Amino acid sequence: MATDTRSSAALPALMALCLSVGAMFSLTTQAAEAPKSMTTPQTTGQALSSKQQTIPLIAAFMATSDMPNLNAALNQGLDAGLTISETREILVQLYAYVGFPRSLNALNELMTVVQARQQRGIEDAPGREPGRAIPVGDELLAAGTANQTKISGAPVKGPVFEFAPVINQFLQTHLFGDIFERDNLDWQSRELATVGALAATPGVEPQLRAHMAASLRVGLSAAQLGEVTEQLKKHGDAQTAERANAALKDALAASKS
User: Taking the CA of residue 133 as centre, how many other CA atoms within 13 Å lie in the half-sphere pointing to its CB?
Assistant: First the structure.
């Protein structure tokens, strides 16, 4: 599988830095409001939709390579109304957080699930592909930087980016550019997926806290994120749920300080 020159072999590991490296980020100016098409809540009330509830579970089971539970979660997501395109996009995006091997394995599992459902007479909605062209060159960097700033709440900088400037270039051009510019999955769904994957991954608590805060910025409520922790507790691993709950508490405390 050939990849763009921007996606080097080291990129998946580097992408795990994602929005922040905890206290190493210095956020200096408040960002503009994100586009409504990306951040409009997918529910009219305070509860997550059935579709949204399945996203963190899909992500968590993908991150831990728990294929039997991933199979079940993918079926639940499709039953709840996720399109094939949305589900596929979740698994593609998460390579930036858990690596290409897990992403590829999860995509293979999704193919198996879709084929098995077709054999049972279930025709899942295909969904749509991205509806706009992804910019290139300097325009891609500008778009990715703007997306990163909106989601992070302010321009992202700090010692780690002075030490390794290329990591922020990868984040801005690839993760927040190539991936987040794809409009076949809204930002709330992307953050729900990222939270689920990071909660299931020990040792990335600073990034998990950052993405809990980002989830609030893109329009998810504290109550909805509390539902995420309950779903992880009910259907996933207890330690995964504990990490998610602790990160949510920290994000809420920081938002009030």
Answer: 4
How many domains does the structure of the chain reveal? Answer: 2
Residue 41 near residue 219 (C-beta atoms within 8 A): yes
Cα 142 to chain centroid, rounded: 21
Six token digits for residue 67: 């294929």
246 domain-assigned = yes
* Burial of residue 177, with CB atoms counted within 10 A of its CB: 0-12 exposed, 13-18 middle, 19 or more buried: buried
Q: pTM of the full predicted structure?
A: 0.85
CB of 97 closer than 8 Å to CB of 78: no
Number of CB atoms found within 10 A of residue 4's CB: 10
Residue with tokens 């050939």: 2
| DSSP assignment letter at 2 | -
Torsion of CA 237, 224, 221, 155, to 10 degrees: 30
Question: Which CATH number goes with the domain that contains 89?
Answer: 1.20.1290.10
From the list 148, 162, 184, 198, the residue with the least C-alpha distance to 37 is 184
| Angle, vertex CA 232, rays to CA 225 and CA 246, nearest 5 | 60
74-88 residue pLDDT tens: 999 999 999 999 999
pLDDT in tens, 85-126: 999 999 999 999 999 999 999 999 999 999 999 999 999 999
Positive/negative CA dihedral, 72, 78, 88, 118: positive
